[in-house]
Write a structure and sequence with these properties.
The chain is of the alpha/beta class. The protein contains six helices and five strands. A five-stranded parallel sheet has the order 2-1-4-3-5, covered by helices on one side. β1, α1 (17-23) and β2 form a beta-alpha-beta unit.
């Protein structure tokens, strides 16, 4: 699985997971949107959830946007490709630990790999981060269940289980 990141550079460079992925040759960063190749674009504003059925649509390419959550508006995701939203997952990064849907770039890419049943690729992406294994542990059950789904509608049904449980806890 080839990983590409459109890098906006608007967050703390010391905490930027995309820059660290580039440093360890695990992702290719693009500073201009027109350089980003066609692939499955991880877009929290997409109308359809990412599912194993999308693995072939992106031709083996995952694309993420690295920006601050404050600037992650729909307009920022103007890249070519198949746009999909990640289902319910919980962040393990130190800034957003335990928060649903507040994933770093590397967490998003690793989650997509797991949903595509590419667990080794996910582990490889997360290696440079001391909390990387924690992400997979925290989300072990949902990632496994999502990877067993056939399509987006099944993903949404599984996600609804987690959202209902989340609502009960609050």
């Amino acid at each position: 699985m080839e990983c590409h990141v459109y890098y906006e550079g608007d967050d703390d460079p010391k905490k930027c997971t995309a820059r660290r992925l580039e440093k360890f040759d695990k992702a290719i960063l693009h500073r201009r949107m027109e350089q980003v190749p066609y692939g499955v674009v991880l877009n929290p504003h997409a109308e359809q959830a990412l599912s194993p059925a999308d693995a072939e649509d992106g031709l083996g390419t995952l694309v993420a946007l690295d920006c601050s959550w404050e600037s992650a508006e729909a307009a920022a995701f103007r890249m070519n490709g198949v746009h999909r939203a990640l289902p319910f997952l919980v962040a393990a990064n130190p800034v957003n630990y335990g928060r649903p849907f507040q994933l770093t770039t590397v967490e998003a890419l690793a989650a997509a790999c797991c949903i595509f049943d590419e667990y080794e690729a996910a582990e490889t992406l997360l290696e440079p981060f001391r909390w990387g294994e924690t992400f997979l542990t925290l989300n072990e059950e949902p990632l496994r269940r999502y990877s067993e789904c056939a399509d987006s509608s099944e993903i949404v049904a599984v996600q609804d289980d987690y959202l209902a449980a989340e609502d009960e806890q609050q």
